[in-house]
């Protein structure tokens, strides 16, 4: 499925560089933009759930953890 992407508020210098690069490759600025995005994103690897979980554990390692049963009891007691 093809979609549209509109990029606003680009610096004039960046637009000029895009047009220059597009001309060098014999493409329109829009086609060059698509190619840049494709190249940048095709090699990006999505982290696995385990990797994301490890990052979260590392970020929260020094925080005090409250057991879920305590939180549940507090929630029930507030009703």
Structural class: mainly alpha
- The number of helical elements comes to 4
Helical fraction equals 55-70%
Summed over residues and divided by their number, the pLDDT gives a mean of 94
Q: Got a strand count? A: 0
Keywords: Plasmid
Protein name: Antitoxin FitA-like ribbon-helix-helix domain-containing protein
GO biological process, one term: regulation of DNA-templated transcription
Organism: Rhizobium freirei PRF 81
Question: Care to give the gist of this entry?
Answer:
This protein has about 80 residues and is mostly helical. The protein has four helices and no strands.
Give the arrangement of secondary structure elements.
Elements (H helix, E strand, L loop, with lengths): L11 H13 L4 H14 L6 H11 L8 H11 L1
Helix pairs in contact: 1-2
Give a written overview of the molecule.
It comes from Rhizobium freirei PRF 81. It is a single chain. The chain has 79 residues and is mainly alpha-helical. It contains four helices and no strands. The chain has a domain at 49-78. It has helices at residues 12-24, 29-42, 49-59, 68-78. Helix 1 (12-24) crosses helix 2 (29-42).
């Amino acid at each position: 499925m093809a979609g549209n992407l509109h990029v606003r508020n680009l610096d004039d210098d960046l637009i000029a560089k895009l047009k220059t690069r597009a001309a060098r490759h014999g493409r329109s600025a829009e086609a060059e933009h698509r190619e840049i995005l494709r190249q940048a994103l095709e090699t990006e690897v999505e982290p696995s759930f385990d990797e994301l979980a490890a990052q979260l554990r590392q970020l929260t390692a020094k925080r005090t953890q409250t057991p879920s049963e305590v939180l549940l009891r507090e929630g029930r007691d507030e009703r």
